[in-house]
Structure formats: structure tokens, C-alpha cells
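Private note to self, pasted from the team thread so I don't lose it. C-alpha cells:
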């Protein structure tokens, strides 16, 4: 069964566009990771102001190998303009096993 890892990003009011720009320029390194299945950046519409970074993997081992590997570092090495505030001020990891899927 697939494994879903969701990074929940706290984004200050008004910083959403900056966050989305950073993701638009993301490295795409995750796509080539063994066991990678799916990625989505989810913008909040109702019920929360958090952005979700949704990733789905063949197994938890594939996720952990990516998280602890060079591709994760590359994907998170996005340069910020000097003095710019980070687009996200906090993050929480949620993890799920896929029980059903269509
Ligand atoms: C330590 C807390 C984290 C923060 C603040 C964070 C924030 C970000 C940001 C701003 C980007 C856009 C690229 C950049 O500007 O560097 C990014 C890329 C990404 N993040 Fe995170 N992230 C964190 C940890 C994680 C974790 C644990 C996951 C696992 C679900 C994850 C999944 C991703 C993915 C898949 C990308 C795209 C990378 C690629 O294209 O290769 N992030 N993250």
C-alpha cells in the first residue's frame, strides 16, 4: 500500500504568492526519487490557512530514503533574495497509509 507524507506549511498572511513562486521554481528532484508516485502543492481555500505539500510514495522506506538523501537537500536549497523572509514560518509532517484508492 502506498504511503502519503504531507508537509503542512504555516504561511504568514500575504506570503502565499511568494511561497507559490518558490514552488513554481522548485527543483523537481523529487520526481526522480525511487518509489515516488505523486506530488501536489495545495493552496488553502476554506477551514485552514495552511498550505499542504502532498507526496505519495510506494512505501515508507522510499519516503525516508528521499527525505534523508541528496534529492531532498537539492529540492530545499532554493535561494532566497538577501534579507528576504522565509515564505513558510513553520511545518508539521503528517503521514498516512493509503487504505483505499480509485
Ligand atoms: C523543514 C520543514 C520544511 C519546510 C519549511 C519546507 C518548505 C519548502 C519550500 C519553501 C519548498 C520550495 C523550494 C524551496 O524554496 O526551497 C519546498 C519544496 C518541497 N518540499 Fe518542503 N519543506 C520542508 C520539509 C519538507 C518535508 C518533510 C516534505 C515531505 C513531504 C517536503 C516536501 C517537499 C517537496 C516534494 C518539495 C519539492 C521538491 C522538488 O521539486 O524536488 N518538504 N519545501
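Design output:
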Amino acid at each position: 500500500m502506498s504511503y502519503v507524507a504531507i508537509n503542512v506549511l504555516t504561511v504568514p498572511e500575504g506570503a502565499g504568492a511568494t511561497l507559490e513562486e518558490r514552488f513554481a521554481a522548485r527543483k523537481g528532484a523529487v520526481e526522480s526519487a525511487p518509489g515516488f508516485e505523486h506530488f501536489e502543492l495545495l493552496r488553502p481555500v476554506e477551514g485552514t490557512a495552511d498550505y499542504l505539500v502532498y507526496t505519495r510514495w510506494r512505501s515508507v522506506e522510499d519516503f525516508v530514503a528521499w527525505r534523508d538523501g541528496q534529492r531532498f537537500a537539492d529540492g530545499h536549497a532554493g535561494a532566497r533574495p538577501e534579507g528576504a523572509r522565509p515564505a513558510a514560518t513553520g511545518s508539521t509532517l503528517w503521514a498516512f497509509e493509503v487504505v483505499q484508492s480509485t
